[in-house]
Fold:
Amino acid sequence: MPESLVINLVSESTVPLQYLRGHHLYRLFLTLVSAVDAELSQALQTHKHRAFALSPLQIASQPQLASVQNLKFLLPRQQLESTTLQYANSSIPAGSHCWWRIALLDDVLFDQISPRLERAAARQPWYLGPARLHVTNFLPARIPEWSSYNSYQALYKQASDTNRHLTFQLMTPAVFRQGDRVSPLPTREAVFHGLRKYWNYYSGLVFAPDTINAIAAKTFDLRTVSLPLGNNETIVGCLGELTFQISDQVDPLVIKRINALTDFSRYCGIGQKTFLGLGMVRTITVTK
Structure:
């Protein structure tokens, strides 16, 4: 059952810019998991298929639960068009109320971990470099899109078998595997084969490779950005909006499977290095 959690935190001291980058947040997540299950934390570092996705740390415009109303994933589309998530552009001042999203993909690894993680996180301060952070609460899992949970079976059952327009809004930069290189170009194969691989591995509902053959690129409105991730790693990724279209004369079963993959992207993200905060997407339903 994929699940996404939103953690509210308060920074006791300034969080320097260099500690807001992907590798530092990845280590903070492993430290949080280790407080609940040290063996699981170790296993996650060598797991072949990444079982989680992380967001960058965000500054909330209002403290604690009131910040739910300001989550950018919940803004009207006209506001979303000029809004992206913060992704390590500046340091976080002391006293800031922050939120951080963690998406869990693997039922077996993370079974029953959420309530234990919340209890453990509240007991002590946590560190990003020299900065102390305190967890104030986890947001309820009933908030649509941003903090939510669903079974893989329900995701499939709820997927449309008629929608042919698949629009992704990239909320953080995304990069994609192209052969033995990493590229900012989101081709059909780069986006959907990655989603299919993780879906097949975690859901138990296997989709064949030719499932995506009916998909074609329709419109892209993208720009490239350079982003340091820490550990001397910098990527050039893409931000913006991209739309794919399912061709005519395609069986409704195939349309349903493609839409299930698209819906799954809200948890999994798209592209490479989603465990470092890349490739977070919002899906948009286009009415035709």
About this structure: The chain has eight helices and twelve strands.
